[in-house]
Design a protein that fits this description.
Blueprint (H helix, E strand, L loop, with lengths): L8 H10 L3 E5 L3 H9 L4 E4 L3 H4 L11 H14 L4 E5 L9 H13 L5 E3 L7 H9 L4 E6 L18 H17 L3 E5 L3 H10 L4 E4 L7 E4 L1 H4 L17 H17 L14 H5 L2
Parallel strand pairs: 1-2, 1-8, 2-3, 3-4, 4-5, 5-6, 6-7, 7-8
Helix pairs in contact: 2-4, 5-6, 6-7, 7-8
Bound molecules: 3-methyl-2-oxobutanoic acid (KIV).
Length: 278
Amino acid sequence: MEQQAKLTVLDVRARKSSGSMITSLTAYDYPWALLIDKAGIDIILVGDSLGMVVLGYEDTVAVTMNEMVHHTRAVSRAVKRSLVVGDMPFGSYNSSFEKAVENATRLIKEGGADSVKLEGGKNMAPVVETIVKAGIPVQGHIGLTPQTVSALGGYKAQGKSAEAARALIEDARALEDAGCFSIVLEAVTAQIARMVTEAVSIPTIGIGSGIHCDGQVLVTHDMVGLFDRFTPKFVKQYAKINESINQAIISYKEDVEKRRFPGEKHAFNIKADELEKV
Ligand code: KIV
């Protein structure tokens, strides 16, 4: 694929009016970021889903700022075209405005991200506004917000009542007013995701929120079938790479045990005349 210029948050915002869909996937390290960037995906999210699909935590709550900075830096090193969004982990933006700006700055300065993402609607709008005023673009995230999943009563679809739907629309408008350049809508009923999308002038990026969003994002490890501990209903699995990897590991083990590996072509050889002198 021909190398194109690096995408900016302005390019992403402009997609709303152009109507061309925004593509987004998660990445947490250099090789995956290379693949995703090369495939022409618009936004690479270094999500705090890192905790579950890479670090083996039960949920995203335990993820630390240092872990996010470390993985965001690895991703940024690989990326030439995609817009890199670094996720702000739980506890990194809700204790004070100063801390929120300090941590968002770390993702940009140390992690090399182009922007940050944080979870929350109206309640987080003042934090978003403060970070945006500090010169850092922010992506919002409403609907199912995994960092506060216990307060939501579990991993459930959001926007199932008229009251919840109105609250989501208010949240989206508050985030737009606070300066977000886009908003992730997670597990929002398709009808309400459409209403939210129509209610704001910034793009919505859906995950489990139907077809009417301005873009789509998935956790890559779910999408390629690498992480199979749990696959949400809204994920379309385009591959089952855990099966191929598992098969490769078993074949390697058997080859080593049966002395079939390494073969002649995998070995280094000393010249015969040198060997005689040993
Ligand atoms: O952390 C993450 O990967 C996310 C996506 C699910 C949007 O927030």
